[in-house]
Structures are given as structure tokens and as C-alpha cells.
Amino acid sequence: MHDDAALFPILRTVCLLESRSEQYGAYLATVLGEQPWIDAWAAEEATHGARLRDYLAVHDPDFDFDRAFARLADLPYHEDDARPPAEELLSRCVVEALAAGFYRALRDAARTPELQALCATLMRDEVRHYKGFRTHLAARPDLSWPARTRVIARRVRELDDDQIAFAAHCAYGDGDYHHRRSRREYMSRVYALYREEHLAFIQAMLFRALGARPPRRWRWIVRRSLFAAVRLRATHTRLLSGLA
User: Fold this and answer.
1) Which pTM was predicted?
2) Which of 110, 111, 230, 237 would bridge with 115, disulfide CB 3.0–4.6 Å?
């Protein structure tokens, strides 16, 4: 068995999600207007899906990407109305921060140099994307601190929607889709990756996007609370997955 086989369910899912960059870019263009930097961002995001696909083709040849991606295409990228431009830019900052932290955690969980190097590259790209969205956000009319807090909280809650759960389902099966079960099984694997330093990395980027610089003691309390919450969710989802 491959040394990183335990990570393949996560890699399959994120490969499918990263491969939807054309839809992501089209959605952003409807919100922000056609702009060259959106095309450049979407093109680089597309390379993430391609790199993961190439890696899996070698190390997880049972993964039928074309079939899985065709099924994922049945789910629209966005079903809600487009957000105001400043809110969408802030939402993208959140997504890129979470993605950078995710790839950092995945890099640290990987056992082989090849996967470690791939995840490190993807993490650096996501950090650069985050900085780019922050720059474009700074050029827009400022959002109030309460408004930024609401946008960030809403975007984090949206991680519970069908985008991730359905991609995780498509990565492995053609049977009936059950949102709760699919999400639970996938997130039980993802939560187990995170250590406190990964959450500190994400937290720092989210605070910058929020426009806040809390005292060190307060940041420590928030980080410890987040870590405790993630550990609790990891245990909870793992237990439920075992009972399902």
C-alpha cells in the first residue's frame, strides 16, 4: 500500500473541487466584471486540479476522475444570488486562507517527499491568491468591522453546503447521495489533519482580512478555543462515521 494512501480520499475530493476553477472564475466575473486578473487566478487554480489529477493518476489509478467530475457537474457552483463586490472579495480571502491552511496541514500529514512538495506548492499559491484578493478588497469601499465579521462567519458556515460533501461522494461512489453522511465521513478525515499551528496560520490571515489586530493574549485564547473545537468535531465526526 502507498505510504500516503490514507490521504487519497481527501486528495480525490479536493482534486474535484480544484478542477471547477472555470466555474469559479465565471462566477467571479459576474460579480466583479470581466478582469484579466480573474482569468489569471482561475487559470492558476486550474493547475491545482491538474497537478492533483496527475498525482492521483500515478498513485491512485483506481480513481476515475472523468466519471467523478461529470457527476459533480450536476451540482451548480452557486445557487444563491451574487454578493456585493466587496463582500465577495472578502469571502474569497476567507476561502484562500482556509485553503492555504488546509494544504499546510496536508503537507505536514504527508509521508512522502513527492506529496509534501506538491502540497507546499499549492499552499504557497493559495497564500499569494489570498494576498491578491486582499489587495483588490482594499481598493473597494470599506466594509465596517461588523459587516466583515458577518461575511467571514457566513462563508465559514457555507463549508457545510453541498459543494464539499457532494464532491466527496462523487470521489468514491455512484450510489445515493446522503449529505450528512458524506460530509461526516470526509470531514472526520480532514479535521484529524489539523494541529494548533495550522489554525494559528489560518487565524492570522482571517484577522488581517477582518482588519483587526487583537492583543496577543486574546489571539491565544481564540486559537486555543478553535483548536479545542476542531478536536471535538474530529472526535464527534469520527464516532458518528463509525456508527453509520
Assistant:
1) 0.88
2) 110
Alpha helices in the chain (DSSP H): 8-18, 21-32, 36-59, 65-72, 85-109, 113-138, 145-157, 162-170, 179-191, 196-210, 216-243
Domains, the chain, with CATH or none: 5-243 (1.10.620.20)
Cβ atoms of 177 and 166 closer than 8 Å: yes
pLDDT given for residue 236 in this prediction: 47
Cell of residue 166, nine digits = 457532494
Q: Which amino acid is at 24?
A: Y
Q: Cell digits for 22?
A: 472555470
The amino acid at residue 170 is: C
User: What percentage of the chain has pLDDT greater than the value 70?
Assistant: 84
* DSSP-assigned letters across all residues of 95-147: HHHHHHHHHHHHHHH--SHHHHHHHHHHHHHHHHHHHHHHHHHHTSPPPPHHH
Which comes out higher in pLDDT, residue 59 or 81? 59
Cβ contacts of 31 within 8 Å, gap of 6 or more? 82, 83, 85, 88
Q: Which three cell numbers stand for residue 16?
A: 474535484
What is the distance, to the nearest Å, from the Cα of residue 221 to the centroid of all Cα atoms in its chain? 24
243 — pLDDT class (breaks 50, 70, 90):
very low
Distances (CA, A) of 121 to 51, 52, 65, 131, 135: 10, 11, 22, 16, 21
